[in-house]
Design goal:
57% helix; 5 strands; alpha+beta; 12 helices; five-stranded antiparallel beta sheet; elongated; disordered C terminus
Length: 312
């Protein structure tokens, strides 16, 4: 948290906190151990079926630890964090483990050396705990919105890089187009070798060969390749703008992400550079006349010797 709002970052949400606490009902912080066996029983706890009903782990963490200041146990071998709770006085734990978020029921057998199966009472409790947490998360939505907006104004954010995946998608469609183009030319050459047939036979040969359909599909693939290129470049421009210090916080990144391709190019690269300006203008023309370009490619590279019946 970057703003100074006191020891409790949620202090200004006192009314909302009371509402959230009411929604949690009997789900309360565990407090100090009530017996010498409780720490061991919690260590040997096991997953309950109510775990499936829990909201996403980050909402539960922000709700219990960040907003309500429930004490937590830090990271260890099998978990990232653990929040000990009590439900109607019975001990449980909300734990984010490697396999996901869980409501864990302790093993109350003092002689136990490993975790066991939750009993019927624990399974019933776990479902009620999950439903209470669901309700509390819904009530706490204004706090989550405030927190997200606050953090977005800072620079402690991770921006996922999907450039490789997007570029591979562009390469896939580009390769697919040239493969389709080569196949069309092969079929076209085969038809040219059958010039001795009459117009009707030529027409039927074109239709039977699937050449018209293949040519149309080539247009679609070419369009997809162009779209994939611009998707990749837009994503790359955002990362380039960050690396160049043109955007400095989450709000600016979000604004840039929703802007158009031209704006992203201008933020990431300098149009004063004549080479970049030339590429910029060329790509704008390519995008604006993509459909015409596709038809031009089809006519230039995939021409079909149609019989007179197909000509005006």
């Amino acid at each position: 948290m970057t703003e100074d709002v006191g020891a409790n970052p949620a202090a200004e949400f006192d009314d909302l906190k009371r509402k959230v606490v009411r929604a949690l009902g009997e789900v309360k912080p565990a407090g100090s151990p009530q017996s010498g066996d409780e720490p061991k029983s919690l260590l040997l706890s096991s997953r309950t079926q109510g775990s499936k009903l829990l909201p996403p782990y980050y909402l539960v963490y922000f709700l219990l630890v960040d907003f309500l200041q429930y004490p937590r146990i830090g990271q260890w071998e099998k978990s990232a964090w653990t929040v000990p709770i009590r439900y109607e006085g019975r001990l449980y734990a909300i734990e984010h483990q490697k396999m996901g978020l869980r409501i864990c029921a302790p093993n109350s057998d003092p002689n136990a050396r490993m975790s066991g199966r939750p009993n019927e009472q624990q399974e019933m409790d776990s479902e009620l705990i999950a439903k209470r947490i669901q309700k509390a998360v819904s009530c706490a939505a204004p706090y989550f919105s405030w927190l997200a907006e606050k953090e977005a104004k800072g620079n402690r954010l991770n921006v996922l890089n999907h450039c490789r995946w997007l570029f591979e998608r562009f390469q896939f469609f580009r390769t697919k187009f040239f493969d389709q183009k080569d196949e069309i030319e092969r079929r076209n050459e085969s038809l040219r070798q059958k010039k001795d047939r009459n117009d009707i036979q030529s027409m039927l040969g074109v239709l039977d060969s699937g050449l018209l359909k293949s040519s149309t599909e080539a247009d679609w693939i070419a369009q997809a390749a162009v779209d994939a290129f611009f998707s990749w470049s837009e994503h790359a421009f955002i990362h380039l703008a960050i690396l160049r210090g043109r955007v400095n916080n989450g709000t600016q990144v979000a604004d840039l992400a929703t802007n158009n391709w031209k704006a992203k190019f201008r933020v990431a690269l300098d149009l004063d550079n004549p080479v970049l300006k030339m590429h910029y203008d060329t790509l704008l023309v390519l995008r604006s006349y993509c459909q015409i370009w596709c038809m031009t490619i089809r006519q230039r590279s995939c021409q079909i010797d149609l019989p007179p019946l197909f000509h005006p």
